[in-house]
Amino acid sequence: MEATKVLDAKGFACPMPIIKTKKAIGELETGQVLEVHTTDKGAKNDLTAWAKSGGHEVLKYEEENSVLTFWIKKG
């Protein structure tokens, strides 16, 4: 999946992945996609809920080798 920007939030614990994602998505235009990499297991629920509450859309989610990757479309 093509992302406009990639955010490496690996190694950070909650709430840092959300804070970094919020800052990064603020730099994008509506409709652009942010790819987020994190190792925080709580991010699956946290980022999904955050995206929904902010009017953004999680297009795809993958987990591989303890790294969670999200593709979030800015709403």
TrEMBL record:
SUPFAM superfamilies: SirA-like (SSF64307)
Superkingdom of the source species: Bacteria
Family recorded in the similarity comment: Belongs to the sulfur carrier protein TusA family.
Gene3D superfamilies reported for this sequence: TusA-like domain
Record domain UPF0033: where: 7-31
InterPro entries named among the record's database cross-references: TusA-like, TusA-like_sf
PROSITE patterns tied to this protein: UPF0033
Record protein name field: TusA-related sulfurtransferase
Matching Pfam families: TusA
